[in-house]
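Here is one chain, start to finish.
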Amino acid sequence: MKRLLLSLSLCCAVSLAAQDPCEQEDASCVPPPVAREFRGLWIASVANIDWPSRPGLPPDSARRELIRLLDRAQASGLNAVIFQVRPQGDAIYASEIEPWSEFLTGQEGVAPRPWWDPLRFAVDEAHKRGLELHAWFNPYRARHTSAKSPHSPGHMRLARPALVRQYGRQEWMDPGEPAVRAHTIRVILDVVKRYDIDGVHIDDYFYPYKERDRRGQLIDFPDDRSFNRYQRSGGTLNRDDWRRDNVNQLVKELYTRIHAEKPWVKFGVSPFGIWRPGFPEQVVGFDAYSELYADARLWLKEGWLDYFSPQLYWPVQQRGQEYPVLLRWWSEQNAFGRHLWPGNYTSKVGEASRTAWRTNEIEHQIRVTRAESGASGNVHFSAKVFLEDRDSLATRLSTHVYDEVALVPASPWMRVERQGAPTVELIE
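Its structure:
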């Protein structure tokens, strides 16, 4: 029967080919364009926000949880996941540079038992489902407030203590130390070389968000040592501009070095959603330029990234931080036409608070993004809300706004050799 069906199929194909209207240059034969839209999902491992559900989860259980997340992402109509692999100078993957993460195994520096490599597993399973996988790194954080286990000898805090600063309740690698930048780039390039990832991603944590002392006074970041060394070497920038330049150098070098290693691997950044209050005029709020020393507009204007995902974590009609207004402003800064895929605070849907959102807010934001000609997708924070399907979020997105399959938008500026035409082989 199978041989008969194959013969019939071949006969039909020959018959149709003989009547192919394209041979008469009939315009009706032109296939419809392929839908392209980035539909990303952040999977956070820090503090076990999304995965694994607790430190020290047995590997079989951790794999099952990860598969559930990837299955839900696929079923929800998404096409990419952004998987956090370096929460605090550690690794959610097999690394000879940094220690295993306590958020995975329960104790920093202790390998999973039985042994497995979560990143390799995640890449393979994501690709099986037609999902891109982007590896997400925190470039400077050395210890999160939720961490419980002591540092292992391989962690930078113990291996190179002169590069790490105690800042409030956290530990932070000093961005002003060239050795920190070199170490971070080495870590990221190691992953680029060894894993079949589709992208590298860094978020909004550059210099840390300001902390206060017991009297409520703001604490300045303790980088006197590195700044004084910079001045003694002849540096002329003031401290704030010097701090911004430290971050700028990291972003620019990552963009260049990642593409030199693998030209097809995308580099993306998801900074705080407001560059500075007053840009545009009606916008008010946190000043990431002066507080985090993140000159995100410069990175976009210089084209030092392949995609840009400002965290637009406000409702469409939020006065002073209107989602459409901020999205349009960022689009206007995009001198090189890089991908603009805003981040959405999707976890606000159904949360246990008076300010919780309904799913229709996220649907509205997706439609606003589609209406902005300079944008081509969204990234959702974070995976847990999809898994829990709060307010039927995953179900409704898959049937309303993500009901049709879409490919990730092409990146024509990335100099990748053109692949040959696909071939089909019939095997009897």
